[in-house]
Design brief:
The complex is a heterodimer.
Chain A: H1 6-36, H2 39-42, H3 62-70, H4 73-104, H5 110-121, H6 129-138, H7 145-151, H8 153-170, H9 173-181, H10 186-197, H11 199-215, H12 218-223, H13 232-239, E1 241-242, E2 245-246, H14 248-268, H15 270-282
Antiparallel strand pairs in A: 1-2
Helix pairs in contact in A: 1-14, 3-14, 4-7, 4-8, 4-11, 5-8, 8-11, 9-10, 11-15, 13-14
Chain B: H1 2-16, H2 20-25, H3 28-58, H4 74-80, H5 83-114, H6 121-128, H7 130-133, H8 136-146, H9 153-177, H10 188-191, H11 206-234, H12 238-246, H13 251-279, H14 283-288, H15 300-310, H16 314-344
Helix pairs in contact in B: 3-16, 4-16, 5-11, 5-13, 11-13, 12-13, 13-16, 15-16
The chains are: A mainly alpha, B mainly alpha.
Chain lengths: 283, 345
Amino acid sequence: MIEGARWRRWVFFYLPLTAFVVSLLFPFYWMIVTAVRPDNELYRPWNAPNYAPFWTLHPTLEHVRDLLNDTLFGTWMLNTMLISLAATAISLFCGLLAGYALARLKFPFAGSIGTGIFITYLVPQTLLFIPLSDIIRNFHLGDSPWALILTYPTFLIPFCTWLMMGYFKSIPKELEECARIDGAPRWKAMLYIIFPVAIPGILSAGIFAFTLSWNEFIYALVFLSSPEQKTVPVGVTSELVRGDVFYWGELMAGALLGSIPVAFVYSFFVEYYVSGITGSVKG
Amino acid sequence: MALLSDASSGIAAGTARRGPITRLLEDERRLGIALLAPTVILLVLFIAYPFVKGVELAVTDTRVGVPGPYVGLDNFVHVWQDGIFRVAVWNTCLYTLVTTIFKTILGLWLALLLNRSFRGKAFMRAFILLPFIIPTVLSTFAWKWMFDPTFSVINWVILHLGLMSAKLVALTVSAVVNFPHFSQIAIDADLAPLFGSGRINWLGDPTLAMIAVIIVNVWRGVPFYAISLLAGLQTISPELHEAAAIDGAGPWQRFRHVTWPLLLPVTMVIVLFSVIQTFADFQLVYVLTGGGPANATQLFATYAYQIGIGTGLLSQGATISLAVFPVLLFVVIVQLLYIRRVETT
């Protein structure tokens, strides 16, 4: 694709690409360096002489140890994991059924329900968190994981439905019709013939839903109050910053460890994740 | 194979004996309703009901735990007269506009770079998406630390790059001036005052704080734009480019007349999603600046949070949130109309 002299290739391709990669990944590198840097090196002014900011010669796990021993970080991880998995499972279940119904079945109001779900897809969480906090309080769900397990699906289901609908539409109708001719009832054809074929789509939707739940912040911030109920993003924000004091080493260690589950899931299913993004955009 | 045989045995069992539920679900309408029921129940309970509740809150005077009397549109009048609210509206619009422009341009550029074939492409693509998948709050903390006034690595880089280029200039000048008796003069001492203490207080200065917030948002958004646009680019047949090249079109012309028109519909959808998310952004600003300094980075969502949850004035907070709605609706309708027009022509 790249024509011309070698310098052109450098100027128009390697240089900009390197600049992109470096600036996109530098904050993560910085997170790692800060997490393992001892405190006396961390809080040395940046314009001090002989200052080597980009690496450390005395890596330490002190911050990680403090994080795990002195804070409830482990509990937050477990909470987030539990909430994310449960919310993902509920959303996949609902999205799978709704996506199938909207893609394959003819029934009254199918169109308007589909439009309704699409509109909720466009409703950001920050629009509803205040009335929702009141409702959660009235339902006596406040400060419990259920508050999040039940509300996260509201922004995950529309996405899952939309993605699955697109996926089901790409599966040929004949596949199902064959089973139906053989006498399978409708729901069994759906369950045993169509759903297994849709597994890649389900995986994309699931990974996407999982990362979105792990990332969610405002509902968790508003609905949970006691430290042992918090999720990782909220716990890190509220418990590692006391007044004006930021425990940067612990914060970065927390940010790093808190990202690992998402990065782990992501690294195994990059292709599905990417097709999830593309699917969500193409609709 | 195991799946298939499972499936066929399941079907065989089904034909042999059909329960009443199976018979009921054979009807397309009933099955459709049954399949949609869980979704509709959850969405009505946690989206439609809160929306109604939000309107109810906005027309009453409710505080936490204290149901209030009906006050009509008083809250809206109050919010509209609130100077901070106006600042928040302006900030939100500015923030959305600027970040969207940068994300589109940089995302498109990165997508075009990634659309070429080179070694390690899949690997590169996986790494580039990291800013988008790592929880926003956590990566924003990394940025907050990078913007720290005393320990900022960004300031360090700027100072050293600045000193280096200044040194280079000074060296060249002194070399020219002192020619042919070239000597390195003591320039470091002369240069230091030029940069003051070099202490750029990123999050403490109103303008710089807005710039910082914009930088982080763009940083997080570019990978999403790039990967989505890359998917769009890959659907464009290379034959079109070849044909254009044969007709004598240069790279820029090929982009302008072949790539861009074909990419426009995808771009519009991406922008639509991104604008909605950016308009309602909360976590990034909450962590990075908390809306400060002096409301310089206050957005709709952070202000609604501050009033509604921070001070417990539920009604006013809900009013601020609701005030976003018409603006958001307007943006969405305009974009949807535009997308429809682009797609039909």
